[in-house]
């Protein structure tokens, strides 16, 4: 038995793991007690990596669709056919007829796919950003003048943490990257306060010092009330700001009585929360998909969360929120190069079929893909590791659109509903078969990088993802060799290129397994950036207008939920059921019984799951977990119900009705 030190790539927490291997068999995954960040912690998802590697439906050979059926094919034949067909589409319809969807944690493959996308020169770029997360970079853009730096909580020193619509004990947080979330939340609660704002008594609530359960889709009202009260206290800003009067006017309607009515909470609960905020040294706020999936409501909630942090002195200060550009950048040069984004936002031209939808941070809304295909504008799609059927909105329109593409190529490791629709299936190495470095450290609570060697040899004919895209680029006539030569470069050679300008050399990281650049807090470059901008923008007009236009949410709505043994469409084999959480009053009114099948229906579609009548969730909320094929939440969504500012689809707060199946 051999034990290999590695790190988990199921989510962005990238916990340290030890992998026990016997021959070609991955026997066990356990936590690495010597890991500097996770310190031995693992979750059920990470411990399931052996089952992922040995999955009975794992893909081992390239496949091409021939006579309507996917068939195994040699790599050269598959890539030759794919390259020929893509070149023909580009020549006939232009580069914009080829779209990319980016969703992978494989660092080298991700960067090579980005290089291919840039070489083709297509504006059609999609990612999970417009499925679960546009609010965070939007507020960074509008309020902070940063492009894509959303900020992270200083978990080591925070003593007042507010978690809004996020359950990190199960999910590890939405872009929080919290290894050992139970221990982290418990430690903060022991030395200070942790408040959870969520319509359900979640696993995180059990560790918290306070809980508020507002009506779903009214988090913005709670934030506006808190901001209004702190402003009325005469709190002085310790950083430069602009737009104070406009902000005060925007939140003035959110009195105690008005907010209690909107959020359907007791006035005494609101005043207790407000009293806690008033006494805090500073308030750190983290939001999750319960917020970010609510389309335009997400924007105003995230905005007011930032304003609350600015008001309480949390921005760029110990115990609050800090900013970093990532391990791959040298900090001493980054601050000088950071441009100030316009108060109007970093938007650009969107797709021709949906003129109301614009590009945000150079990405198109995922919701427009079916319309672009139907209009004939997109004729080929290259899917970089995403499960489109369980992640894109309006499944009933998405599947026919994918079937109508001339080319739909996808990289994947396990056969699924998305691969079954492809014209070309490109099997790539799974997380245990490749050396790798952490790529999403900008989402992490630390400026760090980790390295892992390959744990086992790749099965079948699986190849490195970077190699696949380099070979495809070669067939299309593009030289992507600056990242890696498919004839001569190894995986480690490509990783070395990715760290060429980083804060530590690749050889050092590979030798030790990790490197930590520390935490600069406060960071002078952040203060200098805000000074150059004229102060934090407290009242961007786009957000002030959206707040004023919000109407009360429907009486019964669907809200999303993560599960312990499932992550999006992954890990079906762990057997986590699609339990629909329903308050006893809502279940009784609909005639739904505990343990029975229940149909959740929206104006756009329906799904069937198993009802769990549970008073841990408040009235008016129906909690549906992500990523199930049978109970696919995307069947309730609409590709036309989006926030037109960012293109974010409404995945939470959708009006629904309940029916016994």
Automatic annotation (TrEMBL):
Keywords: 4Fe-4S, Iron, Iron-sulfur, Metal-binding. InterPro entries: Asp_de-COase-like_dom_sf, MoPterin_dinucl-bd_dom, Mopterin_OxRdtase, Mopterin_OxRdtase_4Fe-4S_dom, MopterinOxRdtase_cofactor_BS, Prok_Mopterin_Oxidored. The keyword Cell inner membrane does not apply. Coiled coil: none annotated. Residues 1-57 form the 4Fe-4S Mo/W bis-MGD-type domain. The keyword Electron transport does not apply. Belongs to the prokaryotic molybdopterin-containing oxidoreductase family. This is Molybdopterin-dependent oxidoreductase. It comes from Mycobacterium deserti.
């Amino acid at each position: 038995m051999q034990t290999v030190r590695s790190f988990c790539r199921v989510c962005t927490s990238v916990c340290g793991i030890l992998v026990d291997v016997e021959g070609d068999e991955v026997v066990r995954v356990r936590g690495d007690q010597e890991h500097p960040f996770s310190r031995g912690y693992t979750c059920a998802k990470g411990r399931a990596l052996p089952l992922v590697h040995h999955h009975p439906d794992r893909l081992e050979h390239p496949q091409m669709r021939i006579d309507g059926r996917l068939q195994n094919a040699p790599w050269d034949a598959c890539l030759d056919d794919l390259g020929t067909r893509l070149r023909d589409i580009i020549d006939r319809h232009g580069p914009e007829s080829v779209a990319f969807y980016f969703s992978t944690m494989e660092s080298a493959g991700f960067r090579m796919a980005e290089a291919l996308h840039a070489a083709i020169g297509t504006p059609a770029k999609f990612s999970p950003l417009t499925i679960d997360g546009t609010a965070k970079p939007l507020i960074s853009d509008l309020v902070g003048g940063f492009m894509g730096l959303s900020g992270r909580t200083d978990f080591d020193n925070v003593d007042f943490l507010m978690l809004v619509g996020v359950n990190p004990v199960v999910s590890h947080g939405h872009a929080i990257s919290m290894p050992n979330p139970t221990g982290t939340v418990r430690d903060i609660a022991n030395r200070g306060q942790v408040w959870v704002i969520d319509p359900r008594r979640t696993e995180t609530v059990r560790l918290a010092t306070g809980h508020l359960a507002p009506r779903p889709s009214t988090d913005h009202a709670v934030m506006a009330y808190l901001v209004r009260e702190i402003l009325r206290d005469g709190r002085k800003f310790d950083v430069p700001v602009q737009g104070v009067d406009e902000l005060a006017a925007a939140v003035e309607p959110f009195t105690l009585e008005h907010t209690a009515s909107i959020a359907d909470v007791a006035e005494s609960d609101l005043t207790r929360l407000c009293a806690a905020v008033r006494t805090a040294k500073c308030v750190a706020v983290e939001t999750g998909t319960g917020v970010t999936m609510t389309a335009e409501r997400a924007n105003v909630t995230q905005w007011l969360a930032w304003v609350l942090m600015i008001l309480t002195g949390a921005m760029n200060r110990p115990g609050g929120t800090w900013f970093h550009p990532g391990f791959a950048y040298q900090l001493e040069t980054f601050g000088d190069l950071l441009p100030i984004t316009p108060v109007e936002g970093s938007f650009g031209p969107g797709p021709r079929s949906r003129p109301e939808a614009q590009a945000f941070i150079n990405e198109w809304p995922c919701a427009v893909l079916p319309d672009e295909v139907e209009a004939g504008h997109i004729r080929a799609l290259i899917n970089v590791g995403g499960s489109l059927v369980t992640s894109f909105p309006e499944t009933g329109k998405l599947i026919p659109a994918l079937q109508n593409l001339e080319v739909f190529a996808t990289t994947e490791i396990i056969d699924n509903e998305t691969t079954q629709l492809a014209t070309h299936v490109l099997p790539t190495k799974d997380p245990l078969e490749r050396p790798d470095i952490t790529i999403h450290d900008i989402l992490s609570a630390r400026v760090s990088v980790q390295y892992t060697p390959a744990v086992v040899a790749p099965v079948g004919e699986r190849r490195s993802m970077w190699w696949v895209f380099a070979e495809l680029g070669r067939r299309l006539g593009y030289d992507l060799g600056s990242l890696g030569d498919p004839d001569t470069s190894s995986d480690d050679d490509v990783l070395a290129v990715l760290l060429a300008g980083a804060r530590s050399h690749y050889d050092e990281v590979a030798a030790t397994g990790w490197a930590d650049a520390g935490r600069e807090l406060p960071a002078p470059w952040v203060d200098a950036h805000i000074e150059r901008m004229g102060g934090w923008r407290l009242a961007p007009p786009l957000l002030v207008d959206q707040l004023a236009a919000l109407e009360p949410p429907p009486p019964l709505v669907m809200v999303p939920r993560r599960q312990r043994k499932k992550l999006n469409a992954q890990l079906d084999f762990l057997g986590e059921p699609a339990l629909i959480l329903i308050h006893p009053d809502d279940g009784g009114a609909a005639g739904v019984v505990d343990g029975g099948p229940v149909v959740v229906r929206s104006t756009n579609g329906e799904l069937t799951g198993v009802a769990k009548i549970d008073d841990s969730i408040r009235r008016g909320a129906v909690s549906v977990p992500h990523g199930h094929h049978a109970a696919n939440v995307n069947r309730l969504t609409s590709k036309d119900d989006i926030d037109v500012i960012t293109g974010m689809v409404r995945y939470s707060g959708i009006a629904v009705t309940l029916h016994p199946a």
